[in-house]
Amino acid sequence: MIQTENFFTEEIEVSKSLLKEAKKLVITCHERPDGDALGSSLALNNYFSKLGIKTTVVVPSVYPNFLKWMPGEQDVIAYDKHKDEADKLISEADLIFCLDFNDLARLGDMRDSAVKSKSKFINIDHHLNPQEFASAAFINTSASSTAELVYEFILAMDGEHLIDYDIAVNLYAGILTDTGSFQFSNTSSKVHEIVAKLVGHGIDPSFVHNEIYNSFSLNRLRFFGYCLTKKMVVIRNKRTAYIAVSADEMKRFAIGVGDTEGLVNYPLKMKNIDVVALFKEQNEKIKISFRSKGENNVNLLARTYFDGGGHKNASGGHSDESLENTTVKFENIINNFSFK
């Protein structure tokens, strides 16, 4: 049985009070939403809908096509596509739920709109190094995902009886993606217990898995093959590998939003590789993803050298230098960096 008696007791009371007073609510997540960000946002939106509370999910940017099967997705407002509508919703909101990020900078271009809003914030997140900006913050860096925390939030709000298929499948997708299909070290016994409860609402795990992981386009599959055969660099003595791809290369394969998702994990399949980086040239900047095994703390690497952060084994960052200079910088850092 999932125990929620001690789940952020004070924050739950604050949330109940804020929800009672609020008339216009917005739910948002970080830019370039992944399965956990979108899944937890949609699930919370589904839950509030069951309570008769009107909410709108406003995300900073569009998300991958392989997430567009999720219940409620069709009503999401993307800031980069509908800026005026999103700005209006945010400016009029009494309460904004911020999911799967803990720093308003992670809203990207939508940050200024959120900062100018007179709304109060509730933050639900599991990333390291949180910033203080919310009236109530449900931060647990040991949680597998924000979806796990949203599930516990719903239970602590006495809403378990309202969980239906739509809520359950969105939470399941969030947990599935942020645990790497239940293979990462954040996959606790509690995660399996929660997932068992969610599957009990009629979820077909093979359907969800196929929608997320087995829906590649031909171009995307060929791009992955190109990156692994032509672009992967292995630094054997440092048990490290990286892939660096230019904007022109991604254009050649017609790579769209989210099409590089999962690529960074492939080099980790090698037995003697513990740290992986993916460098992508986008909008005159270099977007960086880091992954690692065991005690190798890529969050420390991202925060120290690439203005980023995240989790111990999965973090991101960026660079304003060229793709070539960024990879040279990375190689120099790796030669002297201690991940422990």
Question: How would you describe this protein?
Answer:
- It is a single chain.
- The chain is an alpha/beta fold and 340 residues long.
- The protein has 2 domains: 9-212, inorganic pyrophosphatase (n-terminal core) (Alpha-Beta Complex); 218-334, Roll (Diaminopimelate Epimerase, Chain A, domain 1).
- It is 38% helix and 18% strand.
- It is built from 12 helices and 12 strands.
- The strands form 2 sheets. Strands 3-2-1-4-5-6 form a 6-stranded parallel sheet, with helices on both faces. It has a 6-stranded mixed sheet with strand order 7-8-9-10-12-11.
- The longest helix is centred in the first third of the chain and has 16 residues, at 35-50.
- The computed structural class is alpha/beta
What count of helical segments does DSSP give? 12
Q: What's the CATH architecture name of the largest domain?
A: Alpha-Beta Complex
The major sheet is characterized as: 6 strands, parallel
Number of DSSP-assigned strands: 12
General form: globular
Radius of gyration: 20 Å
Record the strand order, biggest sheet: 3-2-1-4-5-6
Beta-strand content bin:
15-25%
Bin the helical content.
Answer: 25-40%
| Level-1 CATH class name of the largest domain | Alpha Beta
Order of SSEs: HEHEEHEHEEHHHHHEEHEEHEEH
Whole-number average pLDDT? 95
**What is the end-to-end distance?**
35 Å
- According to CATH, what is the topology of the largest domain? inorganic pyrophosphatase (n-terminal core)
What is shown here, in short?
This protein is α/β, with parallel strands linked by helices. 38% of the residues lie in helices and 18% in strands.
